[in-house]
């Protein structure tokens, strides 16, 4: 018996993990976690998260406040360094990126992140996008111009700002600023985009635009998004993981989570019985 | 008494207190300016002081004050910037070292300036043999200026939201890159405000300078820009009485017949320069903000 078979047997033996979706051989995994635990001091905020994320798909992380979903997301590109202790493996391209000798700055070029509140730099729109690229060694004006245009187009912001690239990014509306931040993240040409409730601070119209943007981006990026908005998760994501009290209760294809979940807790949550 | 009336009374009292503050300031400024401005002339601003006869100016003292201010800022700004960045961006707020640094800064800021001056006299003037000099004065003023400048830079950095730091690190920028290129530029307008305001304080300081930069203003040759010549204005080893020290000196032992007028005129100049600093701080800050946030 090979090791893999043994692992498979073990997996079957453990009852709770059967609620956690596992990718088949034909699916390409962009990122996965093994036994991920997060401690804030002595407090265990997240336990045993084993999730696999398929390439070029959108995965939603849902759950009530304090369920550990944001903690989990922020652990994926090591934003919790210095804030919390993260144990376990985070596998990216066959490499465990949750180890001391990983160059986190290099890693974050591949795994980008967008936060809940729009956080453009106090610079021009153009410089917001090019600044990090320049720091990472891209100096060619043509390349920079091209990246600015492409990323703004991908983020569906180009038409609104193409004449104002030299103006301050702080003058943008909340929704525009958030799309600028998304453009800034994708201008780095990452593999994976992590989004922490990117639309929750926006009005419904801006929120819808951000959702459209994400659906467009799916062709080129693997997207993992934390959201409070169940409709949003249902509309845009291919997979959904439901977090509760620091545990992944259920992880499956989105349509299954929302139509026939296996766990009673998930049923209660998606039906709005608690939250 | 109902809540509405109580609020009305409180509002009235607070307005009155604010009014008193403004009144005191206006009276003070008005008095000094009315007394002093009539004596101001190009001759007064540029001529050297005269010890025994009427008609002396404050040219050398004015230059000394500005030059000493420049040297003080050159010494204190880099240290304050480093300390401010350390305290706000790098230091672990819970660690003992940070607590000690903070306590040191607070104690330093509560030292009376005359004590700083005497300490400077014993250490720099006498022990290090720097003599009464611009350098001794600048070091004493650095001691005096450092705590406030550090605090204002630290506060300026603290007003930049953490979201900006997260944005930087999420783009794969190191902490140093984020601080240097994102946080500092965003904080620059308020840092500049802090620097200019502290410049006003340094400019008006007398007690710390009496025993360090000295009370004499030897004649300067404004054609000689070699900093190693004793009569060069740029020489930092020469004694240099500043405007504030000059005012103090005229009033305590001035024997020129027009001591009253010189003192009033010099005070007005001092106040006007400080006011210019204060107003330019506001202007500079908003100008910088506009410049930094847009490319053109």
UniProtKB/TrEMBL annotation, chain A:
Gene3D superfamilies: P-loop containing nucleotide triphosphate hydrolases. Keywords: ATP-binding, Cell membrane, Membrane, Nucleotide-binding, Phosphate transport, Translocase, Transport. GO terms for biological process: phosphate ion transmembrane transport. InterPro entries: AAA+_ATPase, ABC_transporter-like_ATP-bd, ABC_transporter-like_CS, P-loop_NTPase, PstB-like. The keyword Transport applies. NCBIfam families: 3a0107s01c2. It comes from the Bacteria. Residues 31-270 form the ABC transporter domain. Coiled coil: none annotated. This is Phosphate ABC superfamily ATP binding cassette transporter ABC protein. It comes from Weissella minor. GO terms for molecular function: ATP binding; ATP hydrolysis activity; phosphate transmembrane transporter activity. It holds the Pfam family ABC_tran. One of its GO terms (cellular component) is membrane. The keyword Nucleotide-binding applies.
UniProtKB/TrEMBL annotation, chain B:
InterPro entries: MetI-like, MetI-like_sf, Phosphate_PstA. The chain crosses the membrane at residues 12-34, 67-87, 107-125, 132-150, 262-281. The keyword Cell membrane applies. It is found in: Cell membrane. Signal peptide: none annotated. GO terms for biological process: phosphate ion transmembrane transport. It is a multi-pass membrane protein. The keyword Membrane applies. Its main location: membrane. GO terms for molecular function: phosphate transmembrane transporter activity. PANTHER family: ABC TRANSPORTER PERMEASE PROTEIN YQGI-RELATED, PHOSPHATE TRANSPORT SYSTEM PERMEASE PROTEIN PSTA-RELATED. Belongs to the binding-protein-dependent transport system permease family. CysTW subfamily. This is Phosphate transport system permease protein PstA.
């Amino acid at each position: 018996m090979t090791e893999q078979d043994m692992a498979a047997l073990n997996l079957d033996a453990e009852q709770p993990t059967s609620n956690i979706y596992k990718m088949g051989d034909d699916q390409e995994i962009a990122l996965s976690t093994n036994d991920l635990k997060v401690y804030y001091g002595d407090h265990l905020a997240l336990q045993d998260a084993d999730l696999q994320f398929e390439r070029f798909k959108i995965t939603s992380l849902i759950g009530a406040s304090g369920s550990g979903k944001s903690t989990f997301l922020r652990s994926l590109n090591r934003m919790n360094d210095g804030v919390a202790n993260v144990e376990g493996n985070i596998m990216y391209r066959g490499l465990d990126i949750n180890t001391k000798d990983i160059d986190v700055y290099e890693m974050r070029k591949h795994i980008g992140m967008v936060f809940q509140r729009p956080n453009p730099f106090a610079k021009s729109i153009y410089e917001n996008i090019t600044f990090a690229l320049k720091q990472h060694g891209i100096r060619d004006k043509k390349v920079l111009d091209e990246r600015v245009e492409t990323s703004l187009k991908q983020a569906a912001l180009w038409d609104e700002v193409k004449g104002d690239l030299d103006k301050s990014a702080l003058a943008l509306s909340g929704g525009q600023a958030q799309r600028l931040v998304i453009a800034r993240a994708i201008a780095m040409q990452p593999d994976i985009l992590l989004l922490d409730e990117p639309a929750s601070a926006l009005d419904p119209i801006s929120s819808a635009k951000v959702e459209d943007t994400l659906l467009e981006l799916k062709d080129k990026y693997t997207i993992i998004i934390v959201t409070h908005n169940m409709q949003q998760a249902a509309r845009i994501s291919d997979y959904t993981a439901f977090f509760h009290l620091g545990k992944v209760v259920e992880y499956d294809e989105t349509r299954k989570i929302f139509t026939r979940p296996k766990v009673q807790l998930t049923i209660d949550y998606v039906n709005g019985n608690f939250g | 008494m109902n809540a509405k009336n109580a609020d009305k009374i409180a509002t009235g009292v607070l307005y009155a207190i604010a009014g008193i503050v403004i009144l005191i300031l206006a009276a003070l400024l008005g008095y000094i300016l009315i007394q002093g401005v009539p004596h101001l002339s190009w001759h007064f601003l540029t001529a050297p002081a005269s010890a025994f006869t009427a008609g002396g100016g404050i040219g050398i003292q004015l230059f000394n004050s500005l030059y000493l201010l420049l040297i003080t800022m050159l010494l204190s700004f880099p240290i304050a910037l480093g300390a401010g960045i350390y305290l706000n961006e790098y230091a672990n707020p819970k660690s003992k070292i940070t607590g000690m640094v903070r306590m040191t800064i607070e104690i330093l800021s509560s030292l009376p300036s005359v004590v700083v001056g005497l300490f400077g006299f014993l250490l720099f003037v006498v022990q290090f043999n720097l003599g009464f000099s611009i350098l001794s004065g600048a070091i004493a003023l650095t001691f005096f200026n450092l705590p406030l400048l550090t605090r204002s830079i630290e506060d300026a950095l603290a007003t930049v939201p953490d979201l900006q730091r997260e944005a930087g690190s999420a783009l794969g920028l190191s902490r140093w890159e984020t601080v240097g290129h994102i946080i500092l530029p965003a904080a620059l307008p308020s840092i500049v405000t802090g620097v200019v305001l502290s410049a006003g304080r340094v400019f008006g300081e007398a007690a710390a300078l009496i025993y360090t930069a000295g009370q004499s203003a030897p004649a300067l040759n404004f054609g000689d820009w070699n900093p190693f010549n004793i009569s060069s204005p740029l020489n930092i080893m020469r004694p240099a009485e500043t405007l504030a020290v000059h005012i103090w000196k005229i009033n305590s032992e001035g024997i020129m017949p027009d001591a009253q007028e010189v003192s009033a005129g010099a005070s007005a100049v001092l106040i006007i320069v400080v006011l210019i600093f204060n107003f330019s701080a506001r202007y500079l800050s908003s100008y910088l903000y506009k410049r930094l946030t847009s490319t053109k």
